Input
Amino acid sequence: MSQLKPKTIFEKIWDSHVVKRAEGYPDALFIDRHFIHEVTSPQAFDGLKKRGIPVFNTSRTTATADHNVPTKDQHLPIKEALSRHQVETLRKNCKEFGVELYDLGHAYQGIVHIIGPELGLTQPGMTIVCGDSHTSTHGAFGNIAFGIGTSEVEQVLATQCILQYKPKTMKIEINGKLGKGVVSKDIILYIISKISASGATGFFVEYAGDAITSLSMEARMTICNMSIEMGARGGLIAPDETTFNYIRGRKFAPQGEAFDRKVEEWKKLKTDKGASYDSVLTFDAADIGPMITYGTNPGMGMKVTDRIPTIAELKEISEQHSFTKSLEYMGLEPGSSLLGKSIDYVFIGSCTNARIEDLRLVADMVKGKTKASNVEVWVVPGSKQVEDQARREGLDKIFEAAGFELRSPGCSACLGMNEDKVPAGKYCISTSNRNFEGRQGPKSRTFLASPLSAAAAAITGRVTDVREFV
Amino acid sequence: MSKDKFTTLKTTAVPLPNENIDTDQIIPARFLKATTREGFGDNLFRDWRYNAEDKPVPEFVLNDAKYSGKILVAGKNFGCGSSREHAAWAIYDYGFRVVVSSFFADIFKNNALNNGLLPIVVSDQFLKQVLQAVEEKPSTEIVVDLENQILQVGAVKESFEINKYKKTCMINGYDDIDYLLSLNKEIREFDVAH
Output
């Protein structure tokens, strides 16, 4: 046997899941956990029906309804016929194929990337896929998690495997102490603004450094969630005591001695000394400020105190056309500042920032204050469990007093697929992950920011430097 | 799903030079509610193609009668964002068989290949030449030769990369599930052991 080559945590997990590696073929990678939802699964189930084959292992598949669901009156049938049909199709398919479904009204229902971790289904060392690009969220637990298309959902349902080429590896290290008012959302918006919306395409990222390891699980999930926004296949953080403490006691986590044995295994999930990455980037936490995006992709971001670049300041001439089109869409001038700009909506929610910690951050900030009269504020918890927890802690009362509307769980105004949409031409400060044209509704305009910055904007009614409040 | 076989293609092209075209632009989320794979072409680039009153936007390239053909030529980082395979279905359903760009997002590239839509990566320089050629003369014929991995535009050509396995699948109309199903025994053993 040859001497063991030092490996990254990514390589360790990948290599231990390869069922077959054959010359001329991609790796057949075994998938430990498959999450499905109503939008990207119906055509995959159809494929199984046409082939006359069952789901390979139903115990490795979990379903929920999140993208289409209303966030008000969830006990009533979904009003919009096509949305209702899609959710009903999921119900039928899950019943027919024997897949566990956390449906509307279930105590575990919620956004797929929020319920996986909170139920303990997401664990270190796993391979996890879902027909949703934000599957990268689960990487916060030290696993390989990535989004896939519907043909691949069908592959995984049919065979519990996926054919994939191993991506390159990138390490992003952030050291130092975060400044006042700066939270994990600002870290990831900062990184993407530095390397662009395609800066990590072809790579699987490992986040490291003391600015990362000092974060809570919720904060780590926010960072891994947006890995896809710089093009990365996924992003992970090596598991540590913070990870183990989060998982301990959760519904589907191993319990008692079985858990302790697992922790011993999980402790080995670290990048070996001397292992190499295809790319390494290093940032200083002290350079990061509260961030905001001004354009129509998540790479078009800046510190809230900066000004939008001018055309002359763009790195490449080829960007000019898209940059100009983007600012026209946003109704913004090159070279201008966003501070003080009046806004219309504040959306606090999505798989990026709708966990209990996010809601607590917002509640702490707005306690005793009220929203500005020109804004509408939606707080949409990521899951039924988050909603219940928020109510137990009395956060609902704080939101109510501030004029914020606490709704029921779902993807909500992140993607303009359900009833929650930002009207044409209106500005929304959003804690979600995408500022694409029309993402929050046709012709809507999105500024991505942290929950803290969003809460500050809700109070002032304009783009605000959160440091005025903390 | 068995797919169309792809060998060579000779056709005109439609230019869309924007960079970072995300899958929300290719097909907005509100049109993802169908439970079949067909019909998404009607809403391809919906919010660029039609205005708020559902009238065609004349200056958008798909509404410009001078452009037609089975190749879409787009700016770099095409298909970023959401993993929705509906984006690949919409482009294919509209009638395109090839997308040419200098850079594709990973998930979109996989989705395209899984649906018989060929993503061709060319150099920035060549992309510029193709866009220029098509914009100056919309009747410019483009030849895609997958077997030899050559993209020819008028008098200029460039070879492109595609991995051997995906190339075989495209040429023969194979899909990944056929291969994975043949590994059933190995996968069962792996599943039990983990």
Observations:
- The first strand of chain B starts at residue 8 and ends at 11.
